[in-house]
Every structure is written in C-alpha cells, then in structure tokens.
Amino acid sequence: MLINNKFLFLTCLILLVLISFVFSLLTGSSKLSSNDIISLFNGTASPLLQTLIFELRLPRALAAFAAGALLSLAGVLMQVLLRNPLADPYVLGVSGGSALAALLAMLMGVNSLLMTGSAFIGALISILLVFVFSHQSGSWTVSRLLLTGIILASGWGAMISFILVIAPAEQVHGMLFWLMGDLSYDRPLLPAYLILLCGLIFSMLISRQLNIMLWGDLQAGSLGIQIKNLRLKIFFLSSLMTAGAITLAGSIGFVGLVIPHLVRLVLGTDHRYLLPASALTGGALLIIADTLARTILSPQQLPVGILTALIGVPLFLYLLKKST
After folding, report:
1. How far apart are CA 75 and CA 286, in angstroms?
2. What is the mean pLDDT of the chain?
3. Higher pLDDT, residue 107 or 33
4. Cα→Cα distances 73→104, 189, 203, 234, 238, Å
5. With CB atoms 3.0 to 4.6 Å apart as the test, which of 15, 24, 227, 263 could cross-link to 291 if both were Cys?
6. Over the stretch 32-56, which tens digit does the pLDDT of each residue have?
7. 99: which residues sit within 8 A by CB, 6+ positions away?
8. DSSP state of 137
C-alpha cells in the first residue's frame, strides 16, 4: 500500500533508526536501563559503563547502521542497473573478491586493520575485473555485465572453498563468521561513513535519471539520457558502496535484496524518496538484527548474516506473494 505523505514516512524512519540505536545500547549480556543512558549525558556514568557503551556497543551499532545503509543503497542501484528485481549488491562478484582477500589476510595472521584493508582492495580488484571483461570492444550490455559477474563470483567461490579446506582448524571458525557477517571485531568507521555520505549524495543527484531509466532505454535515450554513461556511474557507485559494506561487516545477505522491495512497496518507485528511505530502513534493520545476534544465545554470538536471512526469507516471500 503506497503512502502519500512521503516526508512523514521518512520522519518515522529516522525515529526508527534512533529507537534501534537505543535498543542496541540497552540490550546485551549486561542489562542497562534508560537511567544508565541518561547518566552518560550528565557525566555521572561509571567508567565501566562508559567503556561498555562508547567502546563496545555504540561502535558496533554505528558499524551495523553504515553496513545496512550501504547494502540497501547498492541494492536499489543494482536493481536499476540490471533491470532485475532479484538483483542484489553481491550479484556481480564484488563480495567474492573481498572475501577471498580477507580470508587470505586471516590465513597470514594479520591484524584486523590490515584484514579490513585487504578486503577493500579485494573488492576493488573484483570491480575492475568485472568492468574490464564486460566492457571489451566498447560493448556494455546488461547481459554481458551480469554474465561476467556471475562467472567471476563462481571463481571466487571456488578459491574461498580451497582456503577453507587448507586453513588451520583454529582459523576456520573466524573465517566462517566473517563469511556470514561479523560485526564483532574492531573496524574503522570513518571510511565507511564517507562512502555512505558520498554514495547517498551522488545517488540523489542522479535520482531523476534513475526514474527515467525505469521507462526503458529507448524512451530514456529519447529524453536525452546518456544510457551508457549513466550505467557506468551506477555500476561504480553501487560497487563501491558494496565494497564499503563488505569491508565493514563481511558478507551479509538479504539486506540489499529485501529492503529495496519493502520500501518500494510503501513509497513507490520515485528514487528521490526510495534511496534515503532504503538507507534508513536497511541501517535500522541491521542494527536490530545484530543486537539480536549477540544476545539471543548470550554469551555466544551468532553471525548477523544468519539473522538477516531468517528475517529476509519470510519477508521476501511475503513481498513476492503481495506482488502477484
């Protein structure tokens, strides 16, 4: 059901994000109350409470929001680029290249910062390979791009399986966690938020062109849209945001696929509203999912990708039923 007052809906999503942050800060193995949160602002909080909030829970919630927002934005753009409602940020193999580089870094025993850098470099290499092999002889078609991404993803998958087979047993657990989405390790937040800010700004700048792209290449071209250049922009923009999300949180499924459909069902296809709404919804969903992942079986933590799949599968089936 479409909502007419789109600004009111965006305001509600902002409140949802704030509520999800509060939920994440209050929930955990050590239960906190709203008075504990208030004490952080009036300067009466204990050092232990400050450490728990500012060094553990808040950075993790911020990472979850950035990763969810990046995946949702990338999912919206990828569905426009490939003209396929089943497209998600991982369909072109970016996650495979990033995962392979991250697992190689783990295998060599590097620290989390170098592993994060390796994951980002692996994602960039994958992006460049997809671009080069799908753009030979000046051709640039959706089918060629998709086929190239799928083939590369298969190759990355085989190499990832090989690393998991030869890796020492004590490292396999951490590798599997990363492959299923892991927000438990230290990660630099500033690069991810810079990518998110730039991605959202540039996406909004081309939002009207994205709306026209939905009408088809022929009509978009007749209205002055340079289809090839716009596709290149969408490809690099969505791939960069996917790389930022994977670097931050590992491979988290279903967020970039389900969230755009969910928001589109409520707001329609106008990308001026769809893009920011998807970012807010994806960020809030991943904060809530990560909070549940670290508390359901506390003190044991689950990979957040398990929770997003458990939420995403029935939700996507519901959306599929609504659309038929």
Report:
1. 15
2. 86
3. 107
4. 28, 18, 8, 11, 7
5. 24
6. 777 777 787 777 778 888 888 888 8
7. 119, 122, 156, 160, 178, 179, 246, 250, 251
8. G
CA-closest candidate to residue 30, choices 277, 295, 278 = 295
| Calpha distance 109→104 (Å, rounded) | 9
**Hey, what's the torsion of the CAs at 308, 310, 312, 315, to 10 degrees?**
-150
Alpha helices in 180-254 (DSSP H): 190-205, 207-213, 217-222, 227-249
What is the C-alpha R_g of the chain?
Answer: 20
Structural contact between residues 140 and 268, judged by C-beta atoms closer than 8 angstroms: no
- How many residues belong to the chain? 324
Q: Where are the alpha helices (DSSP H) in 140-189?
A: 142-166, 169-179
Residue 313: the pLDDT is 81
Residue 173 phi/psi, 5° resolution?
A: -60, -45
> Using an 8 Å Cβ cutoff, are 247 and 120 in contact?
yes
**Which candidate, 215, 285, 227, places its Cα nearest to that of 253?**
285
pLDDT value of position 179: 86
Q: Tell me which of 45 and 159 has the higher pLDDT.
A: 159
Domain ranges of the chain: 6-323
| pTM > 0.85: yes or no | yes
Q: Which of 64, 123, 86, 133 is nearest to 307 (CA)?
A: 64
Query: Which pLDDT score, from 0 to 100, does residue 139 have?
Result: 63
Instruction: Find tokens 């950075």 and name the residue.
Output: 59
Among left, alpha and beta (phi > 0; psi -120 to 50; other), residue 2 is: beta
Structure tokens belonging to residue 181: 């989405």
Domain over 6-323 is classified CATH 1.10.3470.10: yes
Residue 131 in this model has a pLDDT that exceeds 90: no
Q: pLDDT band at 181, cuts 50/70/90? A: confident
Q: Are 72 and 257 in contact (CB under 8 A)?
A: no
